Amino acid sequence: MPRDPQMPRGPARTGSQVTAPEGATNASWRIGAHVPTAGGLARASLPYIEATGADVVQVYVSNPRGWALSPGDPAQDEAFTAGCVERDVLTFIHASLLVNLGSPTEETVRRSAVTLDHALRRGAAIGARAVVFHAGNAVDAERAPSAYRQLHDTLLPLLDAAMSTGGPRLLVEPSAGGGRSLAGRVEALADYFDAVEHHPWLGVCFDTCHAWAAGHDLATSGGMTDTLDALVAACGADRLALVHANDSKDGRGSLRDRHQNIGAGLIGTDAFWELFAHPAVADVPIVVETPSERAAGHAADIATLRQIAAE
User: Fold this and answer.
1) What pLDDT digit, counting tens, does each position of 280-301 carry?
2) Which of 5, 81, 101, 278 is least enclosed, having the fewest CB within 10 Å?
3) Rg of the Cα atoms in the chain
């Protein structure tokens, strides 16, 4: 498929060198948080946006730990969309955490596809830029080849449909590892994109806690840079569309996805400085999914990341 001309370009590679794209030195970032929606999309999220100072948000539009799909409230959708336009806030959707396009269970794959289709339609209704979903797990290493064929057959129609309407993109999020993840370490994104013929409507959401849990040494000087270089080598310089900036409560390679506030975990703030310095991250929105008592934790993490980005 031809490359979508609307997809932003990342860094250009020359041999083993990574050179910044034009304008990268003047990059600016939207930084925000995953925001609550209980009680009504606009009613819950807009005050949270005000309290945190977020200029990008991520929301659930269905039960994050179940298959129930909400039709949404048109009045809340309209108020949310208008509120985000007024505040100049970008929106992303995170699909249900149950989505697993690599599952050996046929019903799980079917429900996963239905859930992603629902998220894409809800995303179009609220003006979301993209829908994030977890890469999935084949469970058993012997099933990996068939899981990738399954991924091809299930994900391609969703990508084609979304692209044909100009709706939200889909962003695959590499996991924290465990089982037979279809994309745990970022290098595995090469096989993932091969499976869907490098479809132009598929992008990447990079989660720092996931990468750390999967074994990437982000805390060592140069570790974040090396990891992002590997991501670019695996799937291309124009695929990174969102970053989940999360510190971690657990050690590297733990396979445990337990987020911590920025600088309070085992990854540390230096890694996030390297994150902002990498040309592939230039102008890519950043969302925190860290612990937060009401809005205070997220407000503090957003402020911390803005300070790091400005250095």
Assistant:
1) 999 999 999 999 999 999 999 9
2) 5
3) 18
Return contacts of 97-101, CB within 8 angstroms, 24+ apart: 97/64, 97/65, 97/134, 98/65, 98/66, 98/67, 99/133, 99/134, 99/136, 100/134, 100/136, 100/137, 101/136, 101/150, 101/151, 101/154, 101/155, 101/182
User: What tens digit of pLDDT does each residue of 48-104 get?
Assistant: 999 999 999 999 999 999 999 999 999 999 999 999 999 999 999 999 999 999 999
Q: How many CB atoms lie within 10 A of CB 237?
A: 18
User: Strands 247-248, 286-288: parallel, antiparallel or unpaired by DSSP?
Assistant: unpaired
- Coil, helix or strand for 152? helix
The SS3 of residue 186 is helix
Three-class secondary structure of residue 239 per DSSP: coil
Q: Could you tell me which residue, 221 or 178, shows the higher pLDDT?
A: 221
Where do we find the tokens 């100072």?
A: 53
- According to DSSP, residue 137 is labeled B
Percentage of the chain beyond pLDDT 90 is 86
Cα–Cα–Cα angle for 30, 206, 58, rounded to 5 degrees: 50
Percentage of the chain modeled with pLDDT above 70: 92
For residue 185, give every residue at least 6 positions away whose Cβ sits within 8 Å of its Cβ, in sequence order, or none.
174, 177, 211, 214, 215, 216, 230
